[in-house]
Amino acid sequence: MSGGTPDQQAAEADRDAVLAANQALYEALETGDLEAVEQAWLGAGEADDKGGVVCVHPGWPVLRGRAQVTRSYMLIMMNTEYIQFFLTDVEAEVQGDVALVTCTENILSGGEAEEEGELGPLVGGKVVSTNLFRRTGDGWKLWSHHGSPVLTSGDDEDED
């Protein structure tokens, strides 16, 4: 960080910290580290009433509370042989103790293998996500995640 007022420098530091927290979530998912995924989310004492954290995976109902959210990630990890996220269009905005990150998750995942010990076919997909973070004593923590699938037909250019 060079130049700028102390306020601008602090805002840039906050933005960088939020982006790092966002990236840490996706890295934890890629490595199948459920403990790190749990650490990315607000703790029980940090969230508001009515379930605290909120998560919407593409095609899933709204999940409220740490237990439901943690269970969802556990199920995803148990049923996914391989997953890798290539984040694009990443934008972050910080307003006080709340930060909003939007991004496109370009997802590469491995399907079920035909033979034991082999990696199954790779499948790609795109999800647009909104991740809402709150500042805590332990840094920026995820408060809400909403992922929506990007449906593309590939015929868009032919339609005039």
UniProtKB/TrEMBL annotation:
Recorded superkingdom: Bacteria
Database matches in Pfam families: SnoaL_3 (PF13474)
Domain SnoaL-like as annotated: residue spans: 18-150
Protein name from the UniProt record: Nuclear transport factor 2 family protein
Lineage start: Bacteria, Bacillati, Actinomycetota, Actinomycetes, Kitasatosporales
